[in-house]
Structures are given as structure tokens and as C-alpha cells.
Amino acid sequence: MNRSGGAAIVGIGQTEFSKNSGRSELQLAAEASRAALEDASLDPSDVDGMITFTLDSSDEIGLSRCLGVRDLAYATRIPGGGAASVATVAQAMAVVESGLADTVLIWRAMNERSAYRFGQPIVPPGGGLVNIAGAGTGSLLWCMPFGAQTPASWEALAAQHYMATFGVTNRDLGNVSVAQRRHAAANPAAWFYGRPITLEEHQQSRWVVEPVLRLLDCCQESDGGVALVVTSLDRARDLRQPPVRVLAAAQSIPAEVEVISNYYHADLTVMPEAMGTARRIYQRSGLTPGDMQLAMLYDAFTPQVLKQLEGFGFCGRGEAKDFVRDGNIELGGRLPVNTNGGLIGEAYIHGMNNITEAVRQVRGTAVNQVPNVEHALVSCAMAGAILGRA
Amino acid sequence: MSDAPTRPDPVYTADATFFWEGADRGELLCERCSDCARLRHPPRPMCPHCRSTKRETVRLSGRGRVLSWIVPRHPAPIGFAEPPVVVLVALDEGIRLVSNLEGADPAELAIGLPVEATFAPTRGGHAVPVFRRAGHAT
Question: How far off is chain B from A165, nearest CA to CA, in Å?
């Protein structure tokens, strides 16, 4: 039992990231999980907790049957689409620290490019209009009849107010995409490995949602799986990898905030969920934005990176476009961001591949390694964590 | 070529049916707490201020201002011949609605643009509230 000693990420695993995996989502989940357990030098029979997203199509029993997990003591799922990603780490930490389970496997696997187009509206056989990416949000009820039918359009409608208020142009957003594609270009695991872009190429890509998002402001659609293993810090010290401690992890879902159709909170120029998460993880860790050597910020769309930079206090309100333009988020900059290329450059595994990158950075094994990483912040806005050396 | 409406129908849920039935009658409705009289949108079965489940509907003026606007281009929105202008409107009564701005000159789109409600038909014979620039009603 472990009631106060802390939790650590001890294993990470992933499949290749592609546009057509050629196998089931359950197989992707199983392969990523197997890799994470091997990375941790743990046997599947050590796993007694499992956590994934409510949206994941594989189930705990099916995955247990693949891996040979023998006796689960705890299983749960986190809501909120990609907002579940870092929240799984917060949940795993709580489960391990409470003693409900000792070794927790987290997974997310999707064939969202080859099997279905996650994020695209579909007309079901009975008529009407649905979008699985909008499950659990107000998007379906209040946006679909008006032609805002995709995550890109839901995000853009909120972002446009922020951009107009602070004079952020689509060209400013392009600087985020160019930096991340530069990171991806040096990352062999990235779909866009070897394929950097220029700002002009960004500006020539087609509008997805005018005047906010061009194609190159949007994350990819990807097939792939990612898994993490979390256990107690005590146990972590006996395992193969240097433990990556969860120094703090928290969720924040403030009043009137929605996951992506986020139009009802008082001040649309800020991201209350990021501010709430920031408050909790800084308070619980005793750390400040200046203590972070890098940040992995959920980047389904480029405006989210700007708003998280401000929400987590890396720059002032309305200053993120200049912070990015001045090169601060690049390798060698003040705060390298999304060093694997992020969901834009590496793959969109619903935020989970940004967590594995933070783990590699703390271990010192990333391809785009930032020097002397003591603390890495990883965020999906509605949840966040600070990872660090044990 | 048919002039039949192609706009998607709204999704009816138990707690919001009144809103769409009002739109069918050409009324822009909002839910109001019968106990503390606060307005709320999106609709919900309980008042977050006083926890009352007693509620009534009130007609809104339909006047408001644009808080945010976009034009979804890709994929082409289902049910629209041309990409619509989607707006977030801050209504004078203090609530917000996602809707469309019809008949607008793209050059005049801006935060703060005054708008007023009208109604547009949907594919299945219903109607939804949409907006036009205030003072430019056709």
C-alpha cells in the first residue's frame, strides 16, 4: 500500500503512427500496452488498474485478455475527449496513492483516419446529424443546425474572439505550426518526419474555418496507440527506467466551461480551465512557470497553444503571439513546446503522445532533447501535470 | 432545382424542446427560473443559483451583438449550399446563442455588430433562430 509516497510514470509505449494501421484498435491498444510494460520491466500480471477515455472503443476485459492481466482491482474512464488525456495521469496518481491499485495501465488507441474520420459530421441511417467528437458536449445540440459541425469550427468560434481582441492573425498562428513541424521533422516517430514547413506554406494552405484555421493549423488524423504505466515511487525505484515522478496533476472544469464548444463562460479572451489547472498544479508542487524547462500543450488547433501559454503563466494575456514569434517555443528557446511535433506534427493520439514525450524529456531520451530537464509541464487545459525527476 | 430547405434539424432533448418549439412558432425563447427569475442558456432542469426546478419560458427581444464569427469551409457544412457565417451572439438580455448571420457583407463582420433575430426553415419542417444585421431586416 502506498498512501503518501508519490506516483511515477515507469513505462511508456506506442505503436507506429500512420494513416492506416491495418489492424484493430484493440490490437493497437494491446501492442502499445505491451511496449509500455516491457519498457517498465513489468509483467502484465503486475497490472491491477486500468484507465482510458470514455471515447476509447476497446474495453478493459478485452485488453486484459490480450495481455494476460490476471486480476484487475480498479478500472475507470475519463470524460471530455482529449481533455481526458492528462487527466488519466491525475487519476492514476490518485489510485496509486490511495492504494486502490498498485500498478495502473493507461491506454488510448484509435484508427481515427482509416476506420472513421474522427471530427467529421455524419448523417446516421435514421437521419439527423452527429459527430462522435462532440459526444458529451453542447456542440451537437447548439451548433450543428448552424453549420458549425466539426471540432475545428467549434474551436474557431471561440478562438476568433480571442484573436480579434488581441490582434492575433492567422499568420501568428502559423508560427506555432512552423515551430512544431520543425520539431516533427527531426523526430523519426512523427508522421511529418523530414517534412518541415515554411510560414508561406502555412499561409497557402486552404482555409478550414475562415478567418481562424487553415489546414496547417489543425492536428492530424492518425491511427495509433499509446500507453503509460504508473506505479508507486517506491516500486518505481526498482524498475528498469529512471522514475518520472508525477510532482502534481490536476483537473479543472470551471463553471460554464465546455470541452470545445466553449462559449458560455464570462471572459472569452482567457481559458479558465487552463488557469484553474495551473493554479492547482503550481500550488501542489510549489513550482512556478519559470521552473519548467519545457511544456507539452494540447494542440488539436494552434490557437489552443497560445491560450495555454497565457493560461499557464508563461507569458501575459495577449502576449502569446509575440512569445511564439520571438522563438521562445523553439528548441533552444526559453520554453520549448511540443518537442515531438505535437498532435500537429507527430500524430493525434488524443493528447497521449504529448505525455510520452514529456516522459522522454525528463528521462533525457527524447530525439529533440532539451538540456537539463528538471520539470516538464504537460497540459490538455482541463487537466495538467508537472513531471520531474524522482 | 428545389427550393426545399436543406438546413439540418435541431436535436430535440427533453430539457430543450421548448426552445425549438418556440422557434417553430417564430418565437425566440429563453428559460427563466420561476423562483429567482434569472435567465439561463443552454436550458437545464435546475437553476444553478437557487436550485429550483420551477421554470418558465420568456420571449427575448432578439436583439444582440456579435461576440465572434467564423465561416466553416472544410468539410463543407452538411445542409448548406454556401458556407454559412456562424456567429456567437450576446443577446441584450445577457445570454449567448450560437447561430448564423444571414445576408451579411463579410467586410462588415466584427465584434460588436448589432444584430436581430429572424427564423430560418430546416429540412424536416422546423425552424431555428438566425440573425440579420440590426436595422437591415428584409
Answer: 9
Distances (CA, A) of A292 to A7, A295, B11, B125: 19, 7, 45, 56
Q: What number is the ipTM of this complex?
A: 0.96
**Least CB-CB distance to A160: which of B69, B78, B122?**
B69
- A136: closest CA of chain B, how far (Å): 13
Q: Which of A74, A162, A282, A348 is catalytic?
A: A348
Residues 6+ apart with CB under 8 A from A387: A9, A244, A245, A246, A247, A358, A359, A362, A375, A376, A378
Tell me if residue A116 is catalytic. Answer: no
User: Best interface-test mutation with B: which of A146, A149, A150 has the largest number of B CBs within 10 A?
Assistant: A146
Selecting from B86, B110, B130 the residue whose C-beta is nearest the C-beta of A157 gives B86
pLDDT tens digits for range B49-103: 999 999 999 999 999 999 999 999 999 999 999 999 999 999 999 999 999 999 9
* A11-36 pLDDT per residue, tens: 999 999 999 999 999 999 999 999 99
